User: Fold this.
Amino acid sequence: MKRFGFLIIAGVAIVSLAALVWLSVGFDEPAGTTSRIIELPAPVAAEPEPVPTPRVISPPAQPAVTAVEPAEEPEPVVEVPVQPAVEPEPPEEPEVVLPSLNDSDGFVRERLQALRNGAAVLRLVADDQLIRKFVVFVENVGRHEFPQTDLPFRPVGVEMPVRELDQNLFLMEEDAFPRFDGFIDVMVAVDSEQAYALYRLLRPLFQQAYAEIGYRGRDFDDALRLAINNVLQATDVEGPFQLVKPSVMYLFADSELENADAVHKQLIRIGPRNSTRLMAKLAEFFVLL
Assistant:
């Protein structure tokens, strides 16, 4: 824009100068007049505006480009599906073939021997007909009775110690209870789960023996639950206990005690400590049953 304005000014100056020259040459001076030449001052040429030096704008220096080798592409990761850990299945126990009921004593003794305290258990059980005697014993206890013969376990073999008060009145001594300690010790030491597993194994034989005594179609499990429940319902009775002996056996002098069911009286004979321990063990087995 500045350069364009400078050219206009220069053009006007040249035109003005040319006009003055033309007037001085072609103008006729009138006659009879004295001419006075007035010299015009030479026109002062306008100083041209300095032409701005064009600024050369250089493009910004590009940073040196270093050749970068293409990075090696990582090898694709192949995801291997993780298989869930498979726990090995426990080996299947071989099927056990039960013997006949008549030939079951040896089989039962072998299984009792395998219990944690099996040797001690074998010293307590009867010599023969273990399955049948156990079934008869359970059925009697379920009816609140306590058989005196054909028991599935050996008798204690120690007579009850008594102190004579008069000719026909006796007092049960406190040391009458410890004679059952050994039997109860063995019973409570039996592992309940092992005992239950053995019972389930022998259950068909128990069921067969139960049918033999007239209970066909009835479940021996129910008979066993009833027997255990009768023992657990017995209440503690505090001594001392007076006895009479009208025959070969001692009877409770207290008629109320003597008329109690046979299971309850047997628990009194083994003593409160042994009764508590036996009930606790039977309660464990009852829960499993």
